[in-house]
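In response to the reviewer comment on reproducibility (Comment 2.3), we provide here a single inverse folding case reported in full, input and output, so that an independent group could reproduce the run without further information from us. The structure tokens appear first.
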């Protein structure tokens, strides 16, 4: 069970897709999921969470609980059965997103967020999470190139994303055994190579 993390616009979705293709080519049976989402109930919760109409309306604790609710469901429906069947699960975001965004970003007590993650995930935690670290400028630049309307989270202030980014770096410092940072400012192919190296080491 592996996960890619990072602030919006860090490139993790593209990198995850390439990683999935690479591992499938190596003969692994791969399941990819994106969070929040990945099951019918979790996708419904995702719509609530990202709806721009709830900007300034949705309470931070509601947000925290909804991300966890979406996660509990996708674990039960998709992740647990896939791992039991011997598949490699690749997640585009997982519980570290909640610590970074709701804990550090929204400034909810990190210990409380971790306690809740324990209830939600139990033993289902990625063996390795790779944080793709980009500067705020690079993240903004990539998102501007996407040519679509920002969702509720994406429309947060720069200071919010600064807290989230620093939160990820702090998480990697505190949990070095299961969270690694990869500099994601540069060349896409080199970043992919680095990700593959780290994952293959864990699969060996
Ligand atoms: P998404 O469009 O999937 O963003 P990205 O492509 O950057 O992953 O939207 C997910 C948004 O939800 C993203 O802004 C990060 C945020 N998020 C949280 O705040 N907490 C969480 O626990 C998760 C999983 C995501």
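Designed residues, in position order:
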């Amino acid at each position: 069970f592996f996960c890619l993390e990072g602030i919006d616009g860090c490139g993790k979705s593209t990198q995850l897709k390439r990683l999935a293709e690479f591992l499938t080519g190596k003969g692994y049976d791969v399941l990819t999921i994106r969070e929040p989402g990945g099951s019918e109930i979790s996708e419904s919760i995702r719509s609530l969470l990202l709806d721009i109409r709830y900007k300034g309306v949705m309470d931070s604790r509601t947000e925290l609980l909804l991300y966890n609710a979406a996660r509990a469901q996708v674990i039960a429906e998709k992740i647990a059965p896939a791992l039991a069947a011997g598949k490699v699960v690749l997640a585009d975001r997982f519980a570290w997103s909640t610590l970074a965004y709701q804990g550090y970003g929204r400034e909810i007590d990190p210990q409380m967020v971790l306690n809740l993650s324990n209830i939600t995930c139990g033993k289902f935690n990625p063996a390795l999470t790779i944080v793709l670290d980009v500067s705020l400028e690079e993240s903004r630049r990539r998102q501007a190139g996407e040519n679509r309307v920002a969702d509720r989270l994406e429309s947060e202030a720069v200071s919010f994303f600064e807290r989230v980014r620093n939160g990820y770096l702090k998480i990697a410092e505190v949990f070095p055994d299961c969270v690694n940072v990869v500099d994601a400012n540069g060349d896409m192919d080199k970043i992919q190579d680095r990700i593959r190296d780290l994952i293959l080491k864990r699969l060996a």
